[in-house]
## 1
Amino acid sequence: MSNQRMRSGGRIIVDSFLQHGVEHVFCVPGESYLDILDALVDVSNKINLVSARQEGGAAYMAESYAKLTGKPGVCLVTRSPGAGNAVIAIHTAYQDASPMVILVGQIKRSFWGRGSFQELDYVPMFSPMTKWVVQVERTEDLPYYMAEAFRVAQEGRPGPVVLSLPEDMLAETSDVGDMSVQSVPRLVPDPGQISQMYDLLAKAERPILYLGGSGWSAQGKRGIEEFAAANQLPVCVAFRRLDVFDHDHPNFAGEMGPAAAPDLVKRVQESDVVLAVGTRLGEHATRGYTLFDAPVPKQKLIHVLQGAQDFGRVFHPTLAIQSDLNAFVAATNTMPKVDVSRRAQSVKEARKAYELNLDPSNSPKGKVDLGQCMLELDKLLTDDAIVTGDAGHYTGWFQRFLKFNGRRRFLGPVSGAMGYGVPAAVMAKIAEPHRMAVGLVGDGGFGMTGNEVSTAIGCNVAPVIIVFNNGMLGSIRAWQELSYPGRVSGTGLINPDYVQLMKAHGGFGVRVERTQDFAPAFRAANEAGKFSVIDLAMDPEAITTRITLTGMREAALKRKAEKAHA
Ligand SMILES: Cc1ncc(C[n+]2csc(CCOP(=O)(O)OP(=O)(O)O)c2C)c(N)n1
Ligand SMILES: [Mg+2]
């Protein structure tokens, strides 16, 4: 006889949450996992169950929690409709390398294969977007699967794990004991590779440090700042990885997403050694894979990644270093000092160009000067604010003009999935109630998950959401103008009156139609102590920080005319 008490599957899972230090669980309830919900009742003083309005919102909350804390985000969803809604965030966790444990309630085992109500096989469904997906058939196996799910989600390149849990398996009992928490090995770089890197960097004339990826610790971020300074390396950050390097640091040269400053793009292209740490050098980090020659860049490429699967996938590395990013930074301390003062000038030039790029005076503007608003916002945000973003062309404005650092965090979908900003801001205020949480979202993005305002109000948390309201799905409209100039199709938006909408929710809403009204509106929203929306009137012409919508259309028409004549 085992000494272990009999526990249901749900209780075993909740005990495993406690073992793994889970503090918040994000869910939309379903009848397929009642036993887990039931077991959570007894630990409500230790685990905060956040019940969102839609699984897309719940799963984004869990994913953004992982980005914020580095710990696995936990999400509970019901079978096919719930799992289907959660896909957007699971795929985001996969692309963005965020550790996540997603538990899906499944139909009873005995109903399998009958085309039963909401029957679906999650293994083929989630295989292409998870590190591991498995259905647990026996209650006594749960301690293993839970411990393994947490380990796999965090090891190497972090990512999502899905467990499918038949409802009768969850309700059955077992006297199985817990499995101990499995430590996640931290891959350290090979010392020989660090000395090879040293040789390459010592000889470099125009090196660039290109940072991205997930899993940076505060210490790792401080360490990479020191490394950049000591080695005279200008630093750029990858698309939506804005907070991996302090923007006020003298080596910071800007962000390298699709809206990057042309001067910085040129600098990266003309570099002779690229030290890419964390970033996969994916499509949006490399201007559609054109930033470097593929597959063999003319630069020496030192590529540092947590997982080996992305080495050489597009760009062949000169030196591939598989390592935990923070362990890599720590290992650079062993490098001997070298005189690289000859590179100081190029660091200064890159910095100067970044600072010049912070001037919005040549940017398109309507009644609201968005560049000016972002500079104002930069002053109004606390140093440890959590800023969340969404997808869309409006993101170009804060990506260019807002500043981040190790403490002022940015959470956004590298995957480009819309609807991220509101749930992530709600999560930020739940996980870190004493920090300022500000969501920057388009009117399209707000339309997708703005319903999570109810979740925030239910949880008594009050993020501030700024809706960049241009009355359109601006990003797609821009693509239409580029490829099919003048032919607008399906990209207009009819929006609600956000001030009235917030009133109906019991929140706070304010509309801003002039630049000078932005700062007072933000202060009012911040002080309202309620879920707040600032409806920021955005001139549809201000589609990017560099060119108007009309400018885009005219350039496209000109290109077409030239092509026709050629
Ligand atoms: C879930 C999802 N659906 C569709 C898209 C395609 N898409 C990318 S940006 C965009 C428009 C975003 O509109 P909005 O939030 O208003 O921002 P804007 O571009 O107008 O600044 C769309 C539809 C996407 N990325 N994600
Ligand atoms: Mg829009």
## 2
Amino acid sequence: MLNRDLDAAWKYHNGTKHSYLSLRANPHFLDWDNKPLLFKIYPTLEVTRLPKDFQQSGIAALSAITSVGAKVKGDSLPTLEDIAQFLFFSAGVTRSRKFPGGETFFRAAACTGALYETELYLVCQDLPGLGAGVYHFGAAEFGLRQLRAGDYRQALVDATAKQAALRKAPLIVIFTGVYWRNAWKYRSRTYRHFGWDNGTILANALAVSTALGYPAKVIEGFADEPVNALLDVDIKKEVAFSMLAVGLSKTAPKKVTETASLGLPVVPYSSQEVDYPAMRQMQAASSLTKEEVKGWSKKVSRHSPALSGKLIDLKPLSEEAIPKDTIEQVIQRRGSARHFAQEPISFAELSTLLDRATRGIPADFLEPAGSRLNEMYLIVNNVESLAPGAYYLRRDKLQLELLKEGDFRKQAGYLGLEQQLPADASVNIFFLADLNRILDVFGNRGYRATQLEAGIIGGKLYIAAYAQRLGATGLTFYDDDVVNFFSPHAKQKSAIFLVACGQPLKA
Ligand SMILES: Cc1cc2nc3c(=O)[nH]c(=O)nc-3n(C[C@H](O)[C@H](O)[C@H](O)COP(=O)(O)O)c2cc1C
């Protein structure tokens, strides 16, 4: 029952906090000669290239991100072309940039340090253009490598609480995290990044599924051992973090008798890898057995802090008035802002960002509808018709509650790890969560879910910003200073995530 030993999540969380002192007492220098390879490659397997002649879905990005799942009747089986489109706009290489001594390949979703530690695998029945099997998505070649032939979906159904969405899904995508790929730069904090980066990819994946007309649901409650065994990942290096059930099928999964080890070689990421045991301990402590999965998903009660300040109604654009750039166009042009001009965004733009990014996520840890784990707090530097200051987002009512008025640019820069981006942004959106309540309900697994929810909303904020021709970037932060800044309102909460939005400045 490690999942109920809540000290483990606190030990990991507290042990990976950033502070002014920790950064100075424990500096980290990047070993460029040992930088990991950013792709997982199975050298002995043939790669089947995916088609790249994508169609525009015609669905506006700002609409695609609000859906909690396309409604379909009867079979809804993704075709190979749709799977290719889904993979490209979730985790494909969308841009590259040359620099002296190399080239960086940027992907569809923002990922910390452009290190792309999230790998994608498909588990499917026979689909139009793709035989039943277990596949690894090779982002480098934009192709699939078949790890197992045959329908293995039942192994995943057995690993979960038999969620209807998963039981009836023709396609299940498994997202893993590769420790070293990200820990090369971020050391033990990488386990948080698993949730963040898997989350931004899921934001895209959910939006593209919706745009293509497939229902999709995020699954975080699964027994870890059988899922990792199906993929045959070396769990000292890589672990399953979440799943996405896509589509609807009348073809029942077949019984799976065994998932034998595959023993497939993988091209090494670096000449040497450094092990950070804190992450493997957090992974073990938040792992579930099949027995534990059954009672896993429950509702987290919410503590609503008493009203302390003036309330301001948000005024988002209506469905008719939103910019109509499609989800594909917006994902293709997204790229984290590297500089912000100290210029305002409009109140309607801010309102639209917050409204569209928070309309719900189809996920097994967010039931019933309207449940949530993270709360959002803002530092407004420069938004038209809104006084600069600190605010709390009342999500149910789409209102901002003024916590304190003032010019907090300097503090925002400091809280965002002394970077210029949060100081120059028009608004900084912080995510804080009441981990005590969450862990009490979900055990340590709630820690994964909290990071993942933040990453998904963060990914939607990115899309909502770029759809409105604004810029955005995820940021890291000084944990306790963030909580103190928003206290007493945020007392008892923990800092989870940060996104800055504003007017991008071309360098
Ligand atoms: C959760 C998260 C945190 C990030 N933190 C920082 C940060 O602290 N500073 C920074 O300059 N960029 C940060 N980034 C931006 C990444 O470096 C960027 O996403 C990555 O280089 C990939 O580039 P792209 O987003 O332009 O595709 C963050 C991104 C995410 C998703």
